[in-house]
Amino acid sequence: MKQEQRSIRADAGLGLELYQFKGIKQNFATHFHEYYTIGSIEAGERIFVCNGQEHRLQPGDCMLINPFDKHSCAMVELAPLHFYSFNIGLESMGGLMLELSGRRNLPYFTVNALYTPEWGEAMRELKLMIEQNRPDSVKKKAYNWLMQRLLSAYSQPAPEADHPEGNRTIRLVCEYLERHYDRNVTLDELSALAGLSKYHLVRQFTREMGIPPGRYQQNIRIGQARRMLVHGAMPAEAALGAGFADQSHFTNYFKNTIGLTPKVYRDSFQ
């Protein structure tokens, strides 16, 4: 039986990362990223839940995920997944918007699942160009054409706030967790900050943000560790810098969230 394959390829010319998973049997619990993800299913089926909406994706179907969108992905009947995605950072997306519209305003995808085959075909063509190391000018033309059509059909200007959802109290808790990502913030601290009992805080936070405070902080830590790995930090250094208690815990959480081990992720950028 062919073993699973997981890879990532950074394309500096386009300012994105190409993720590819082949033959994997992994569920991804609810989490979020600080970048845009545009992906397509090549084989297998998945139950994709994004911002509380459930979608059943089959080969050729696509997903559009905004930064901070809470999403999960589960297997259907243990079918191996073949999947790829383009991950686009906020800075790169801003640069692209400047090229396409003359303004750096970030977009917000209003649709999370696409069932029209033409989108999967267009994404696959771009993926092949990246794999084949086609000239930057050729890739850029295909990329801009694809993104201009997607953005025109399925996006609107993003809200100015980093966290458009939630009330002021929950935003305050989010900001506190983001500032103190490198240490374990207790529920007692958050309860005092929010002026709520621990029970009501967790309940309200989970309702507003889609995940409990502890998992929110873990996602922020993964984002920080990811940036450190991109710039050459060793996995042990990234684990410590991001506030994880030990490297084993960090490796497991990173793979369960990103789909790759920290070492494989780091090495792809070196």
Written overview of the protein:
- There is one protein chain.
- The chain is an alpha+beta fold.
- The chain folds into two domains: 5-157, Jelly Rolls (Sandwich), CATH 2.60.120; 168-267, Orthogonal Bundle (Arc Repressor Mutant, subunit A).
- Helices cover 45% and strands 23% of the residues.
- It has helices at 90-101, 117-131, 136-154, 168-179, 187-194, 198-209, 213-230, 235-242, 247-258, 262-267; strands at 5-11, 16-24, 28-31, 36-43, 46-50, 53-57, 62-65, 71-75, 81-88, 107-109, 113-114, 155-157.
- The strands form three sheets. It has a six-stranded antiparallel β-sheet with strand order 1-2-9-4-7-11. It has a four-stranded antiparallel β-sheet with strand order 3-8-5-6.
- The chain starts with a strand and ends with a helix.
- Residues 162-166 have low confidence and may be disordered.
List the helices and strands and how they pair.
Elements: E1 5-11, E2 16-24, E3 28-31, E4 36-43, E5 46-50, E6 53-57, E7 62-65, E8 71-75, E9 81-88, H1 90-101, E10 107-109, E11 113-114, H2 117-131, H3 136-154, E12 155-157, H4 168-179, H5 187-194, H6 198-209, H7 213-230, H8 235-242, H9 247-258, H10 262-267
Antiparallel strand pairs: 1-2, 2-9, 3-8, 4-7, 4-9, 5-6, 5-8, 7-11, 10-12
Helix pairs in contact: 2-3, 4-7, 7-8
